[in-house]
Design brief:
2 helices; globular
């Protein structure tokens, strides 16, 4: 069937597109208390996962930074990390690091010197 061949080609193209546009760096769970800044807003937050290309944040208070907004994350272990909000849902943000910042060097040093994988705490 000719239609099935086209569908298969389209499915392969979609898979390739997902591979090239999706997350390529391994995420590592962590718990790093931080603050996030956007324009004149500042909010307490926690980094809940981190990779070479970005991080996940859990924000404790109302924080209005839309997808595409440039933000700065501050903490004692990593210093200042600059990034762009890629998604926002229910008090959580996905952040991609700016390629032209020194965030990659800071993250590489963090993994080399500080990171310990966080295991979920099971309650009884």
């Amino acid at each position: 069937n000719h239609g099935t061949g086209k569908q298969s080609q389209m499915a392969n193209a979609i898979q390739q597109n997902l591979k090239t546009n999706g997350r390529t760096a391994e995420r590592r769970r962590c718990r790093i208390n931080s603050a996030v800044r956007y324009m004149k807003q500042i909010a307490d937050c926690r980094i809940i996962d981190i990779s070479q290309t970005g991080l996940g944040l859990e924000v404790y208070t109302s924080f209005n930074a839309a997808t595409g907004s440039k933000i700065v994350i501050e903490n004692n272990d990593l210093g200042l990390l600059e990034g762009v909000v890629r998604w926002s849902r229910g008090g959580r943000l996905g952040v991609q690091f700016n390629h032209n910042s020194n965030s990659l060097a800071k993250i590489t040093a963090y993994f080399r010197n500080y990171h310990q994988d966080v295991r979920p705490v099971l309650s009884r």
